[in-house]
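Input protein
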Amino acid sequence: MYLAQKEFMDPNFLIHKLDTKYFPWEFISSLNCVVGKEFSSFDIDVSNGYIWIINLWLALVIATHSCAWLGTAVLVTNMRNFPLSRGTVAGILKGYIGLSAAVYTEIYNSVLQESASKLLLFLTLGLPVLCFALMYFIRACTPASGEDSSEHGHFLFTQAASVCLGIYLLATTVVDDLFNPSDALSNTFTGIMVIFLLCPLAIPLKMTLFPTNSKKNLPPVGSSDSLVQGEGNSNQTEPLLTPSSSATCLGSFHEGEYASDIDMLLAVGEGAIKKKRKPKRGEDFKFREAFIKADFWLLWLVYFLGVGSGVTVLNNLAQIGVAFGVTDTTILLSLFSFCNFLGRLFGGVDKTLPRTIWMTFSQVVMVVTFLLYASALSGTLYASTALLGICYGVQFSIMVPCASELFGLKHFGVIYNFMLLGNPIGALLFSGLLAGYVYDFEAAKQQSSTCLGGTCFRLTFLVLAGACGLGTILSIILTIRIKPVYQMLYAGGSFRLPSSSSQS
């Protein structure tokens, strides 16, 4: 499905060519969703022939293409609206995406009575209706010019609500698997889940019904309020225009690069030549400009090795559980999903250090986890799965803000979706080719279609450990290269927006 999502032109190449302020991108994604899910509903009644294969392929291409429209529109818009909290924003959005499978499973089991046709009807009509109802609220706003304590509190409330939702979904999954509750109790579980999902709506309701006057207490940019403190000293003179802290920081950051260009700048000023300066790290890059940068490919490779190895375990987790002697893998899958959510939610919160250093730590833990899997020690399966889920989620919440901080927000949609190609390519190489071949080979030695024992995935885990080891080395190199960017952006613990990025 993920490959089908990338099968045709990425929507961001079209989004950045047209007017994103007035064009209804959510409307387009809704149409894709309707058409794609409608195609999928045809497959239920087809029992023979090859027509269903073509139909299913078209459904995957169109329906999953809507995921790219929805995800990109929501993520890019919120990253631009909250540039000072982009790591937190990415973590919250990616975290809810990680919980979405458990939410749909709960709806499928209780409300839809495990009916495939009802599920497709719900996806065909329910999601577009939600998009049409909420598309007005997904739009670009003018971001705040400084840190806002109330905004930080709102993000904390949303994170707390999402954690409660994740814990609740994990608990209900365990209860459903162990006790098989009645339909009435299952519907009650679903109703409580919906309440948790709607909890973040308390923030806009509170801001609408009880507006605060915090903005009135903040002096506007460029005001003369700072002169009040020097009112007693009338003889003291101050310059009318003072350089901003951001400009000072940027100047010191690029001082070494600009010093060698004095003669070139003088020639440009005299009109002898015309030169267009290429963007520096932290400024807005076009996709073709970022594509040829070493930092771009280092980040892509680190992300590819991290999520590629993680998604391999996710795709084969049921077979891994059976190979280790776990007959019912529902709890194992739920544990991975919940820990994946935690990694996504909190992985991008810290911004004082280069974010890639957390990718380094997470991939070191992944190396240890894969070695534990390969050793097949008793009692380590659930602990290894939990650690791997957290580290796998961290890769998502780190890549998103890191790419925006290195290459800017103006063309972030295209850069972000290209980075996401590391997930399906990693799944194809590590899961489809490596893990599938090794599993079939070991199962053939046992003369069975189901492989049992630690040898089923041992070679796969050793290769994945080596891949994460390589990813660790590359992430260290990337961290050293981009450390000055974070010193410039977050000097003194506060965010300083580069001049070019602020214009996007």
Observations:
- Residues 458-489 form the longest helix (32 residues).
